[in-house]
């Protein structure tokens, strides 16, 4: 299974490292507008080809799967073009800028008979499955709390007057898109779509959210998800039930361990993860589905990603953050 990558950020480095440890997968090509941007990664991972023309890259018949890790605002465009060229696609989170883009990509993938995955680590982690298995032990759930906060060095650049992509509305950036999206996946893969959603954000003068709290309601329970790129915090998830609670250690994209606290019993710590690169688990899941040609499961995951994008977009708009994609515009 030969993979071509779009993008040169740190996440591509982590992705390529994960690919190295999976038999039958290999990164053979990279696309970057500037060869110099891709050269360090290509040399590090012995990638044979660097393309600076996207059409040439997508025309490479040796590439089976395209991994899209370009700026958020380009996810939909690059995914669409890869599908049009007959490639299966793994697209980084957040899947798209809008729910409409996600729905259109889903239909295109089905029309072309191709697989399309959102690269969201959380839902494929073994410890996340542990959370699902333990939920019945804590009774009826009343409250869920998630906090993923990580001070960004690019926030310093924002304060200094620069506009890094991650803090730029034109690139579909912001804390909700970059970091709180993991919390949203953590919750929605457990409980589905909420009855209501509201995002209360700290916003820069350019309108981008640098941190915020996402509040969602479900029948009988309330959820709040905190995500910040302008402050640090203890990262965790807590699921509180009438018979006990679950404590997920670390951020929801890692789920380092799960501690079960049942009333009247000693706490028990679980950890089913033994591989440090968390992208390993999602890539193994995608490889299995591709190898087995399991389109049913692929498209169920795709439906789920589309539901997440609906909630994500709704939440973003409650805070007043708008992207060019909201007006049907995309960056090229």
CATH superfamily of the largest domain: Dihydrodipicolinate Reductase, domain 2
The CATH architecture of the largest domain comes to 2-Layer Sandwich
Shape: globular
Side-by-side strand order of the widest sheet: 8-9-10-7-11-12-13-14
Q: Cα distance, first to last residue?
A: 29 Å
| Biggest beta sheet summary | 8 strands, mixed
Order of helices and strands: EHEHEHEHEHEHEHHEEEEEEEHH
Strand tally is: 14
**What share of the residues lie within helices?**
25-40%
Write up this protein.
- The chain is an alpha/beta fold and 332 residues long.
- It folds into two domains: 2-121 and 280-301, Rossmann fold, CATH 3.40.50.720; 126-273, Dihydrodipicolinate Reductase, domain 2.
- The chain has ten helices and 14 strands.
- The protein has helices at residues 10-20, 35-44, 54-58, 75-84, 99-112, 126-134, 153-159, 175-191, 279-291, 295-318; strands spanning 2-6, 26-31, 49-51, 65-68, 88-92, 116-119, 141-149, 196-203, 209-218, 221-228, 236-241, 244-249, 257-262, 268-270.
- Strands 8-9-10-7-11-12-13-14 form an eight-stranded mixed β-sheet, with helices on one face. A six-stranded parallel β-sheet has the order 3-2-1-4-5-6, sandwiched between helices.
- Helix 5 (99-112) packs antiparallel against helix 10.
- The model has no long low-confidence stretch (mean pLDDT 97).
- This is NAD-dependent oxidoreductase.
- Residues 1-117 form the Gfo/Idh/MocA-like oxidoreductase N-terminal domain.
- InterPro entries: Gfo/Idh/MocA-like_OxRdtase_N (IPR000683), GFO_IDH_MocA-like_dom (IPR055170), NAD(P)-bd_dom_sf (IPR036291).
- GO terms for molecular function: nucleotide binding.
- Residues 137-246 form the GFO/IDH/MocA-like oxidoreductase domain.
